[in-house]
Design brief:
It contains seven helices and two strands; from the N terminus they run H-H-H-E-E-H-H-H-H. It is mainly alpha-helical. It has two domains: 81 residues, Orthogonal Bundle (Arc Repressor Mutant, subunit A), CATH 1.10.10; 61 residues, no CATH class. Strands 1-2 form a two-stranded antiparallel sheet. The longest helix is centred in the middle third of the chain and has 22 residues. The chain is elongated, with a radius of gyration of 17 Å. It starts with a helix and ends with a helix.
Length: 159
C-alpha cells in the first residue's frame, strides 16, 4: 500500500488532526486488514512530502498533522475502517491558527526562492497561495504579488 498525498489528507480529515504516529499506525492497520504491505520508511517519506507540498500542515503547538490547502482529501482503500482502528475522538482544529502557520511558512519560503531565482519553486508557491486563498480565505495577496512580480522579472531575463 502506497497512499497518495490526498489519501493521507483524507485519513487525517476523518479526525480533524492526527499525530504522525497515529497516522502511520492507521495505515499499518489498514494494510494488515486488506492483506497488503506497507513500508513504514516509505510512508514516513510520503508524509514528509505531503507536508512539503502543503497537503498536510504540522500544528507544532499540538503535535498534530492537519489537512493543508493543497489537498483534495480522499479516503484510501479501507479508509472507512479508520475510525475503528485509530481510537481517537474527532479533534477540533483552530483553522485560524493553521492558516496563520501556512501563511508564515509561505512567507519564509518565498524569500528563499526569490533569492535563488527558482522559477519552478516560485510557481509552486504561487499555486499554494491560490489554494490558501480558496481554502481559508486568508489573504496572501501581498505574497502572491511579490512572487508574480519576481517571476515577471525572471521571465524578462533578470538574473
Amino acid at each position: 500500500m502506497d497512499p497518495t498525498l490526498d489519501e493521507l489528507a483524507g485519513a487525517i480529515d476523518l479526525f480533524g488532526g492526527l499525530s504522525r504516529e497515529e497516522l502511520v499506525r492507521g495505515f499499518e492497520d489498514i494494510s494488515a486488514r486488506t492483506g497488503g504491505h506497507i513500508d513504514i520508511e516509505v510512508l514516513n517519506l510520503r508524509i514528509d512530502e505531503a507536508i512539503e507540498k502543503y497537503y498536510l500542515v504540522e500544528m507544532v503547538s499540538r503535535e498534530l498533522l492537519v489537512v493543508g490547502p493543497a489537498a483534495l482529501p480522499e479516503l484510501p482503500e479501507g479508509g472507512e475502517d479508520l475510525p475503528h482502528l485509530i481510537l481517537v475522538e474527532k479533534r477540533e482544529i483552530d483553522m485560524g491558527e493553521v492558516e496563520k502557520s501556512v501563511r508564515e511558512r509561505i512567507g519564509r519560503e518565498v524569500e528563499i526562492v526569490i533569492s535563488k531565482k527558482d522559477r519552478n519553486q516560485m510557481e509552486s508557491l504561487l499555486g499554494v497561495c491560490y489554494d490558501l486563498e480558496m481554502w481559508g480565505g486568508r489573504g496572501v495577496e501581498d505574497i502572491r504579488k511579490k512572487l508574480e512580480g519576481k517571476m515577471d522579472h525572471i521571465a524578462d531575463g533578470e538574473k
